[in-house]
Amino acid sequence: MKCNRLVDVGRRQFLRGGVLGVAGAAAATVMPSGAAQAQSQARAMLDYPSNKLANIADLVVNEPIDIGYPDADSPGILLKLGTSVEGGAGPDGDIVAYSVLCPHKGYAMSYHAADKTLNCPGHFSRFDCEKGGQQIWGHATQNLPQFTLRVDDAGDIYAEGADELIYGRLSNVLEG
Amino acid sequence: MAYKRNIDRLPIIPADAKEHNVTCHYCIVGCGYKAYTWPLKKQGTTDSNWMGQDLSVQQGVDTEAWYAPSMYNVVKQEGQDVHLVIKPDVNCEVNAGLGSVRGARMAENRRSEITGTQQQRLTEPMVWRYGTWQPTSWDDALDLVARVTARVIDKDDEDDLYVSMFDHGGSAGGYENTWGTGKLYFGSMKVRNCRIHNRPAYNSEVHSTRDMGVDELNYAYDDYQNTDTILLVGTNPMECQTNLFLNHMVKGMQNGARVIVVDPRRTVTVDSCEQVAGAENVLHLAIATGSDLALFNTLFTYIADQGWVDADFIANSTFQGDVAVNEDAAHPAALGSFEAARDACKMSLAEGAAVTGLSEAQIVQAAEWIAKPKDDGSRRKCVTGYEKGIIWGNDNYRVIGALVNIGLATGNIGREGGGVCRLGGHQEGYFRPSDAHVGRPAPYIDQLLISGGGKVHHIWANDHYKTTLNAAEFKRVYNRRSNMVKEAMDARAGATREELVDAIVGAINAGGIFSVCVDIIQSQIGQAAHVILPAVESGEMNLTSMNGERRLRLVEKYMDAPGSAQPDCIIAARLANHMERVLREEGRTEYADQFTGYDWETEEDAFMDGYNSAHPEVTYERLRTAGNNGVQEPVTGFENGQLVGTKRLYEDGVFTRHGRDDGKALFCMGSWRGLQAPGKTQQQANHRFLINNGRANLNWQNWFLDQKNDFVMDRFPVPFIQIHPDDMADLGLSAGDMVEVFNDVGATQALVYPEPTARRNETFMIFGAPNGTQGNVINAGTNELMLPNYKQTWANIRKISDATPAAARVSYKSWEVEL
Predict the structure, then answer these.
(1) Which pTM value belongs to this model?
(2) Would you call A139 a catalytic residue per the annotation?
(3) Three state DSSP letters for B494-518
(4) Predicted complex ipTM exceeds 0.90
């Protein structure tokens, strides 16, 4: 039995680097730059932290980098696909970032490089990183939250928003 | 880009929100949900909420303290706008907090004037007037229905009234509504020309198991957790009964059960079983399509020859003798004793292998997993689930009988870890007067309609246009016949009611048909209707149903009906009231008297008049108390404030479903006879591709709500057909291309989805889609008892278009998880 099948993640929030690490697809974990903290009453869809995730030079095609966005407790990946996709950022239009918490029951998903999908060990849902996180097959009732990316002149990549509700929080930007 | 809701926060359920018991509308598993409602101008907070938990922090996996945007809406409750959240119930034994991709969209699939969801729901009665449908009052619409209907029927002469009526539970079915329509058509009337929602006659889908004494829903779901072997035949539970699979079958595999899957194609279920149990504990028997009977008869023969049978069970609980029921027009096989069945069904390993395409070793391995005693001599437990793969497949009666034979021979019915059960489609919820007058074989209604039968047609939540066989011809004829009446009505615009009824009857007598549609949406057959009546679903009314382990629950009403829509039972009652009034006006007093007894004001009145009359211990109040775990039928009493149910049937070894006084189960004596239904062999010979067909995970049945759900339609804007990539190359096809599937009976369309695990020349097309009716290419051939044969269909395929713009955007990657 493969080591990441039916991972028992228990009540922990998520496995940063754990699931992705055993899948052999993860590079270094990059924490948010910490510059931006959520406001207590953010405006819907607007007030997201602008967090630097990485520089383009850090990216290797088809090797995702672990990220946390909008804060460290919301795990995701930053990924250079190698081919331009609708919604892709950067000069090649191929950089994307997604939440990796399955929107069905919140299990941490692993990246399968061979077909560029995120796969859930809990109940076997899977999502297409080349199609805006569309659920290919599964139990979630939404497609995968994708993070809005901005790339500045220096090649720094910032996350600045999300297009679906992230599993485990009733406000993407946590409200205290 | 994939469809996104761009919702990044949701209102928080306050601590004092109203909580309602909800069983999922959709499949037979009947997952428990809770509906929460609260006033629009009120909200919980991160520190004061329904969970009493701190919601300012990220919640963990499987949390109860989260809900998706699809679980939220704003609806009317007693005339006021309220927030609505419908989320899975962690305390329900059926699903333990799991939601399916269908049920977890229930809230989003409610009609809302605020959020704009499901604006397709019917809100007002409509009649054909001035060349289109016009809204009108209930009394006006029902008066027209009653007057026209009364013109074509009379006491003991009701054969010109055709009725298509659902018999299921859940959704808009259930005990209240089957009783309402049942009392009207089988009580006040004795309508013979009728059919059920998904098939062209009024018949059982599982006649043989009932004739053998074995009800088709005889186990408890936790039998899957306490067994040695799970045998799945013609069923795909990961997609079609999702949380039965995830919450019970998976646990069974984790407890050590092995799985046998009999299916011509590799389904998601096969892959999921391999993920959970390991491939070495999963045996996929990819038989030649339609050869199930040969497989089961071979297994039965081999198991019996090895002596791996339960001799005591056979001696004590099954018929002793030779033949108990002869083969005749109502019984496509004789029924009798174990030994008689051994003689009739005898099939060697070599014969079985030749017909099924399996190896003898595979058949032996299956037999060992099903029945070989364990090393310590103890008997092996085996639970069997089956569904449309054989119900709507070759030789329905004999195949199901042959499968039940194996369960009986091995003593696997009425015991923990056993059971031979259909997995089901909808929930059940059937309570009606006897249907014995319909007869057996039942009239083949759709073919009778095609050949000019029927003058008035009452349709209760059936959509023949999307979900019948021989659908292309049916639509052509029905459009023509219903248009004759529309033209007659148009020609008499401005006429009095009496003149209009005369005009309608004139058109009917010239070959037309007057069509009345009761539904929650404007269906495709509703395009032909002359009167359209809006109905409601569970949650918009109180509704009782039972699931696939006979678990009876009450869905509590949590919102108002759309517009003036009403429960089907109340619509039936008001139609009966109008029939009585019209007949009295016409001086037909004796007949009018048959339409009394419908003074119901609520669905609970219908429940008490029907179900409660036979089960006096069961009331709404007691079912509310029983909550989402309900009680498993049959209910045997009420003790200590709780309804007492029955965990599994036949634990006493007494079999009753056939009505025999001796309580002995019968074996089925059905030998293999090839493709049984008319036209199948010829169709196979003349067409390249098998067009296997069925359901998929994402959408529910005929997509009636999902056709207006953006999340669903974004994924599959056109129905898909899965084809092997090499076959695609042969035909010059790319993923997403639109193809025409055509054969001797019709044509339909689908988008191409590459499926590397498909066998060459064997495709799979999704059933029931609104924009590609799979039934167009299903021929009219049925078994002797009018059960359709969808699965054995052959056709040719050609490209008709590049991918539509919507289809070009979606993913065509494999459905199999990669961990």
Answers:
(1) 0.95
(2) no
(3) CCCHHHHHHHHHHHHHCCCCEEEEE
(4) yes
